[in-house]
Fold this sequence. Notes:
By secondary structure, the chain is mainly α. The protein contains 7 helices and no strands.
Amino acid sequence: MIHSIAGSMALFFYKKDLIKEDEIEVYEYGAELLCSTLLNVLGIAVLMCVLGTYFETLLYFAAFSPVRVTAGGYHAKTHLRCFLMSAGVYLLSMLLLNIPLPLPVPAAAGAAMTAAVIIFAPAEHRNRALTGDERAAFRRRAVVFAAAAAVLSCAAYIFSARAAACLFWGLVSAVLSMLAGVIENAVT
Length: 188
């Protein structure tokens, strides 16, 4: 469904003389990514509204997004699987907020997550190989973001254990995605 919508969008741009014929495939791919991303954001927004976890979701994605973008991670084979995995991980993380974590847990796990990023980041996608310089730059950024999320999670604990847990589960989700991507790349 997303693929056909993206194809229609690219064809529309072509028929309106906004793009050239040899650009249709590139625009189709971009439109497919845009539609998929919008579907994921909409799904998370619906879950956020149903759960009433507005502030928690912002904190979760404040930790998750920078680490996931720079460290890389697992890529589902279809848009539906991507949506279901993203929604499932988010939902599980929001449910885990109800389990109290004593400060040593996020501190130790945050250090372990940062160490995993130092060792394994970035998880490259097989369709987008990185140069040595790109790999080093992504790793540096991922380490900074992971360490910042870990430190902020511990610091937030002083004010709110729930806020700390939001940051913690965002970091954990991003790093586990990265590790799944590393494993997927090693297997294929």
